[in-house]
Design brief:
Length: 516
């Protein structure tokens, strides 16, 4: 990364919304098993392997460079003082050195902010666990990456065999443009701007690229922002048919009387989970069979995401009942939806979300899952027009906006407004598809990869799922002032899975008939 690259508005928003109580990094707790008779030093071998592959993911060597007075979004620039020993650490795990202890440590570490003076990622290796296991806690700021690009980084960290593959060394660095080259490119781009036919929307969006200085002084910031505004205006004008159609579809959906029930279902009731959070976290993970979950989805006529939502619904319902705090109205879940096209591995955020009722007001697990399938279908239909609109509005940039948004985020955090305002959604549930084949890192077999995501004011509980081999690894993260020991909720998930399977199991007579 030889040139400065300005963050998109969506990426930068994760920086602006961050407060000491609400870190905006995502991560994972991976569990490895060392080969029998292993005599090496896993930490040093893992660190050396990552160091040799850093060029595959340039974002790992990029630090933030702020604009003067925060008048514009910051940029990624290569850290000329990069030191891998400041990013990969050997960590100690107290007795009894088991996964439960590791989960408590991960919850504590996930609450700590990343140092913005360095590239925004850290790895912690925990050796000496039971059964020859190794723990790896990793975290990376959400400004760098979303779930889709995170899965792409898997190819840098992991191998398909115990023997690490040979990775090609980095290619020659790109030579930065001279000022006279920038001026010449500006003239060419200016001619292109007025000769580019506005009707060719797709061509305009892909081909129009005005030059940038790539510098951080005030004059360069203003110049680059002016170039960005010109680009944005042309691209927005070329996409006006798409924008107008999307807006028309949204208005039609809202005006349709049949949509009113769906909109009412998306309204979130206040619960004990929707309060301001502290600067501490509680984390726990558990796993279920992927093939069994897919069989359950097939039996119910839904999809795997519907089963994940039903499991989250059942667990939250059980917990709230145990606390005497289950509302009469169904809770809702915020569900991130990726906009990333297949093959796109850019390290940025390409995502928006939908809100779905999760039928916590229904006691019968079978009826609850069937209701969730119907509600998720309606939510997708309601949010579909926004998919085409989001790329057009997700990178709006206004001078001075960064400092304003940061002040507003801090005021919201300090005022505890989330304790009195109605929640936008009750919980966050995300399902990230992962590899089906066995993976290795520095010769150790990957057993599990539990996601560790983000808790926010007003939406304290986040349940993120990562598929790997024939399992679904669930990661529960929550503000510790809301649920001090989220393991209690995590332990309810296998029970809820068994209840759902039993609800959709064929009658004994059908089983007997099939056997005959």
């Amino acid at each position: 990364m030889s040139d400065a690259k300005k963050l998109s508005s969506l990426d930068a928003s994760f920086l602006y919304l961050e407060t000491p109580e609400m870190p905006m990094h995502v991560g994972s707790m991976a569990i490895f098993r060392l080969p029998d008779g292993y005599k090496g030093d896993f930490f040093e071998e893992f660190k050396a392997m990552i160091a040799s592959r850093l060029h595959i993911a340039p974002i790992l060597k990029a630090r933030l460079q702020k604009a003067p007075l925060d008048i514009d979004h910051p940029s990624w620039v290569e850290d000329d003082q990069f030191d891998i020993d400041r990013h990969i650490f050997r960590a100690s795990l107290p007795a009894p050195r088991d996964r439960a202890t590791l989960e408590r440590i991960v919850g504590w570490m996930h609450a700590k902010l990343l140092n913005r003076a360095r590239p925004l990622w850290e790895f912690y290796v925990f050796e000496g666990m039971k059964d020859n296991e190794i723990g790896l806690y990793s975290k990376m700021h959400h400004a760098c990456i979303d779930g889709g690009a995170g899965a792409a980084l898997t190819s840098m960290i992991y191998d398909l065999t115990p023997v690490p593959r040979v990775v090609e060394p980095p290619s020659a660095r790109k030579v930065a443009q001279e000022p006279r080259d920038i001026a010449a490119n500006l003239i060419d781009a200016y001619q292109q701007l007025w000769t580019q036919p506005f009707e060719a929307a797709a061509t305009a969006q892909k081909s129009l690229e005005l030059p940038r200085s790539g510098k951080s002084d005030l004059g360069s910031i203003l110049f680059d922002n002016a170039m960005f505004q010109i680009e944005s205006a042309v691209k927005f004008a070329s996409s006006m048919p798409t924008v107008l159609k999307s807006l028309s579809d949204v208005v039609a959906k809202v005006a349709d009387p049949r949509s009113r029930e769906s909109l009412q279902a998306m309204a979130s009731p206040p619960t004990i989970l929707n309060k301001a959070i502290s600067s501490e976290r509680s984390f726990a993970g558990t796993s279920i069979s992927l093939s069994r979950a897919k069989a359950l989805a097939k039996a119910s006529g839904g999809k795997l995401n519907d089963v994940v939502l039903a499991l989250a619904s059942g667990v939250v319902r059980r917990y709230l009942i145990s606390q005497g705090a289950l509302p009469n109205k169904s809770l809702t879940a915020g569900v991130p939806i990726s906009l990333r096209e297949e093959g796109n591995a850019d390290a940025n955020n390409q995502v928006f979300g939908m809100i779905c009722s999760i039928a916590t007001d229904i006691e019968d697990p079978k009826q609850r899952l069937e209701t969730i399938i119907a509600q998720s279908t309606k939510s997708k239909e309601m949010s579909h027009p926004l998919r085409a609109l989001m790329p057009q509005v997700s990178n709006i940039s206004l001078l001075g906006a960064p400092i304003l948004v940061q002040i507003m985020a801090l005021l919201y955090s300090r005022s505890d407004l989330s304790n009195v305002l109605p929640p936008a959604t009750n919980i966050t549930v995300s399902n990230v598809p992962g590899p089906r084949q066995t993976l290795y890192a520095a010769g150790a077999e990957l057993l599990h990869i539990f996601p560790v995501s983000i808790s926010t004011h007003g939406v304290a509980l986040n349940i993120t799922v990562q598929s790997y081999r024939d399992q679904l690894d669930f990661g529960f993260i929550v503000g510790a002032n809301i649920i001090p020991h989220v393991q209690v909720m995590c332990d309810m998930l296998p029970l809820e899975f068994d209840a759902l399977e039993a609800a959709f199991a064929p009658p004994p007579a059908d089983i007997k008939g099939a056997a005959e």
